[in-house]
Amino acid sequence: MDDFDRLDLVAIQQSLGTGSLHFLPETTSTNDRALEWIQSGALQTPALVLTENQTQGRGQRERTWISSRGNLAASWIFSIPENAWPSAGMLAIAAAVAVHQVLAERIPYSSESARIKWPNDILLRGKKVAGILVETLPLPGGNQTAVVVGIGINVNAELPDRNSLAGGLEPTSLKIELSRKTDLTRLVCDLTDRLPDCVRQVNQDPGGLVTGYGRHMSGIGQPMTVETGQHAVRGICRGISLSGALLLECESGLVEFSSGRIQAG
Fold this sequence. Notes:
- This protein is an alpha+beta fold.
- The protein is built from 6 helices and 14 strands.
- The longest helix has 21 residues, at 184-204.
- The chain is globular, with a radius of gyration of 18 Å.
- The relative contact order is 0.16.
């Protein structure tokens, strides 16, 4: 493992400030470990669960995210007062904006090549490079709620065979797209710096967050089909609402979707 792949835990702890860091050389799911940690009551937020090798990571709609050494699998934990609780959908939007910003800064060509696929997949030239899973849990003994932001990014390692991790999209990695390796420690530190600002923006400036998301959202103004259970609805994508719902202009008018599988056309 070279310096680009190495996780400098001292530097990562410094980026967390007084927050807690839990590093595991290997684990099934960083989100699972984060939820267990929250229930133990032994962490100081913001906190981070980090691994070099994730074997059973969880993604949207029960997909798996396998992450080997050289890639990123991590879960950030934040606390939010219950009386300032935003919609869960907007927390996912905030996380997607943060990840998009950090990745776009590393791309030498147009940032328009980095897009967000609703609600929170990141695409590079139409291929999936990152996925996000947001979960919440009440913090023990108080009026705070913990937000777990699980992020998986294909960074430096060779990709596994195509499987469910890409959700039907062709997977890619930063190494493939940039033809060079990315400093994994710097990536973790930049995400640690950027995520809190985007999470705070959910309550402080949701309109600005939605505008920023829409600027880089894949499919706005284009035909799109949303599948929800046994039903499929086709229309024109009009962005997202202030709750993070997908807006689809159909024959019957503007329809909001809080969840669903989307396809172009």
